[in-house]
């Protein structure tokens, strides 16, 4: 557990970067610091590994005041990941990952073996280990940055905008893989971002800071969306709060059997007729959904050109937001539901998902409560 108690940082020249900040980052959880530019996020993070010293206040890790610890020893227990990976440009990728263990006196062979293992763990082809950082994409550099921070197996990780230097698609992938990795490793993580969506997706706890380094609210993402403390937090959370809150609710909703046809075969072979609207769901032979088709002639084989794409997929025990989105984005208005292996389970209807939400809300609302 990392605890900040009344921490203030005033830089020489007068800038008050962090003002009387108190918060706790629980063990084995991801705590995200989020807020507008200049609100003191990076300064706060750097005070935890003593790259910046607070003007006043106390920071403790597992009950020990970090100012009573030797800075080198402190940093050995803290992995640090920054934007663009912060890699040494003149070292190979493997050498970058092995850097800290080598510094700590690890045998070269052990350090490099572990570097290759870590690269694989963060989803990199180990063959890329012999390249130099400039020969990697932005997303790959970020992965190497994470691998390097993990190399000495520190219990604590500090991450400063680790996924912000890449495009939105790669960013989503990195976030998903990071969550999977954290599920295995269970590090105590403090992460900085200016992106509230990233904070809500990754954070077990989210601390919203306002300019001047003042804590506006610290809560779980669900509570933050449901009850922002004030107008600043509400504005910072932005629009679509009600809809985004559905991203946390993995609840059962009705799933219906759907008529399907295998790609390359005529709709007529589907063993029934398409729904009255004419849309039929096309799958591959293993029942992975491929898209919807509304062929003019049921005797013609369905081809990839016939597919109307764009619908999102919902996971059967996933959040209600996914189910609602699948239904609303589907050309047939029937949302495609798959299992964890991506195989078709059936379809769902927006009206029925909404019924689940409403009946749940009725059950949760205290009696006499008004919206
Ligand atoms: N070394 C420094 N000397 C003087 N002022 C500094 C220094 N580092 C940061 N500051 C100031 O402290 C305030 C907080 O900066 P910080 O980098 O912590 O904010 P941030 O929330 O991480 O911002 P961003 O999202 O833009 O990275 C800013 O006003 C900044 O100008």
From TrEMBL:
PROSITE patterns: ABC_TRANSPORTER_1, ABC_TRANSPORTER_2
InterPro entries, per database record: AAA+_ATPase, ABC_transporter-like_ATP-bd, ABC_transporter-like_CS, P-loop_NTPase
Domain (ABC transporter): residue spans on this chain: 2-236
Name this polypeptide is given: ABC-type quaternary amine transporter
PANTHER family on file: OSMOPROTECTANT IMPORT ATP-BINDING PROTEIN OSMV
Keywords: ATP-binding, Nucleotide-binding, Transport
The UniProt record lists the keyword Iron-sulfur: no
Similarity annotation: Belongs to the ABC transporter superfamily.
Lineage: superkingdom: Bacteria
Entries under SUPFAM superfamilies matching the protein: P-loop containing nucleoside triphosphate hydrolases (SSF52540)
Entry-linked Gene3D superfamilies: P-loop containing nucleotide triphosphate hydrolases
UniProt cross-references to Pfam families, sorted A to Z: ABC_tran (PF00005)
């Amino acid at each position: 557990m990392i605890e900040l108690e009344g921490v203030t940082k005033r830089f020489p020249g007068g800038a008050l970067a962090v003002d009387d900040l108190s918060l706790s980052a629980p063990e084995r959880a991801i705590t995200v610091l989020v807020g507008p530019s200049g609100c003191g996020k990076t300064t706060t993070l750097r005070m935890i590994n003593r790259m910046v010293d607070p003007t006043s206040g106390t920071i403790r890790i597992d009950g020990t005041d970090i100012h009573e610890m030797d800075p080198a020893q402190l940093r050995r227990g803290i992995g640090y990941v920054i934007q663009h990976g912060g890699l040494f440009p003149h070292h190979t990728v493997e050498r970058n990952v092995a850097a800290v263990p080598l510094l700590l006196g690890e045998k070269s062979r052990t350090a490099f073996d572990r570097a290759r293992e870590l690269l694989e763990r963060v989803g990199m082809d180990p063959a890329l280990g012999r390249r130099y950082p400039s020969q990697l994409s932005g997303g790959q550099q970020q992965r190497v940055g994470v691998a390097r921070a993990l190399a000495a197996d520190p219990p604590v990780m500090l991450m400063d905008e680790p996924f912000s230097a890449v495009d939105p698609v790669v960013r989503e992938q990195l976030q998903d893989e990071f969550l999977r990795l954290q599920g295995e490793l269970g590090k105590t993580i403090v992460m900085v971002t200016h992106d509230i969506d990233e904070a809500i997706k990754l954070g077990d706890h989210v601390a919203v800071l306002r300019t001047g380094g003042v804590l506006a609210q610290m809560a779980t993402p669900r509570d933050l969306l449901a009850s922002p403390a004030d107008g600043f937090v509400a504005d910072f959370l932005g629009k679509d709060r009600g809809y985004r809150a559905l991203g946390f609710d993995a609840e059962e909703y009705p799933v219906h059997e759907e008529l399907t046809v295998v790609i390359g075969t005529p709709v007529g072979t589907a063993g029934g007729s398409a729904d009255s609207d004419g849309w039929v769901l096309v799958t591959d032979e293993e029942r992975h959904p491929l898209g919807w088709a509304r062929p003019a002639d049921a005797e013609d084989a369905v081809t990839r050109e016939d597919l109307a794409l764009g619908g999102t997929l919902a996971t059967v025990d996933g959040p209600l937001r996914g189910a609602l989105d699948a239904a609303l984005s589907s050309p047939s208005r029937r949302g495609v539901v798959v299992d964890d292996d991506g195989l078709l389970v059936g379809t769902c209807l927006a009206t029925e998902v909404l019924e689940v939400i409403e009946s749940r809300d009725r059950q949760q609302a205290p009696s006499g409560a008004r919206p």
